Amino acid sequence: MYIIQCYAPINNSNDDIKDQFYERMQSIIKHCPRKNLTILMGDINAKVGIDNTGYEDIMGRHELGERSENGGRFVNLCAWNKLVIGGTIFPRKRIIKATWISSDHITENQIDHICIN
């Protein structure tokens, strides 16, 4: 079993920093044999959204909001490595989905994720 815990750059970080992070994540994941259980989890800072068109095999439609730029990067990483984004598969109450809530309690996002192969 391989467990990868990470903290991703925020959405408005420099593109070079985000590219380096996702390249590093890919280099780590590729060393995990596909026959073994791999779990990727952490503060991904990525909204994957509810539109799973083209990604039906790795994500469901039970998420909050629309996909962010980081969400696109994260979904592509998961698709490339056949990692299922767990929090999107089953319907749950909105309050349970939110992993980040603004200080004024108006904005809720689901930016922390757990994925499994």
UniProtKB/TrEMBL annotation:
InterPro entries: Endo/exonu/phosph_ase_sf (IPR036691), Swc5/CFDP1/2 (IPR027124). This is Endo/exonuclease/phosphatase domain-containing protein. It comes from Schistosoma curassoni.
